[in-house]
User: What shape does this take?
Amino acid sequence: MGFFQFLGVKKKELTVDQVKREEIKLGIRESQTLAKLEKLEKEREDIFAKGMKIKSPPRRRQLARLYEMKSSGVKTLERELSILSKEITTISALKLALERRNSSKDGVSRILERVDEAELMIYLEDDKISQEMYLEKLNGVLSTVTDGAHQITEELGREGSEVMDVWQKMDEGEIENFSDGLKIADKAVREKEKRDSELEAE
Assistant: This one.
């Protein structure tokens, strides 16, 4: 069952548990797609390395074609990963919204009835819409049904930001050593987990 089929079929009787199960399924699909992408990238690198060593023009031409095919596959899988990431963000936002409104069945149905599948599908499949832009669009969808929508998308938008910041600093040469970067990332994640635990305890 596709993501939008899931939302459409379950729209009236959807529960938090069903949303959590769908979230797990999407997570598995994301991991499988990532594994395929990494395998394809490795094959592409191997083809390129082989082409550097081989001097025969016909062999190189054949390898160049293979490289282009693998590159096309990489692009397709990267796009699939981008859509999956947005789908996971959507289902996570719905889960949080449902958890906050689970005391009222009317609240649950109102949340789902306001989700415009056609509009979300456009946002999901548009490569020009980044994860950050998608969060803003999702906030617009959820803001009509829950006062906490902005807070929900802010929470989701912060996922992984600490590690992303470390990678950015490594890209810019601010952090030069891999092991240093890993230590800083681990420390940032631990501090975030501590902050989240303290907020939950309040």
Q: What stands out?
A: The two ends are 39 Å apart (CA to CA). The chain has one domain: 15-159.
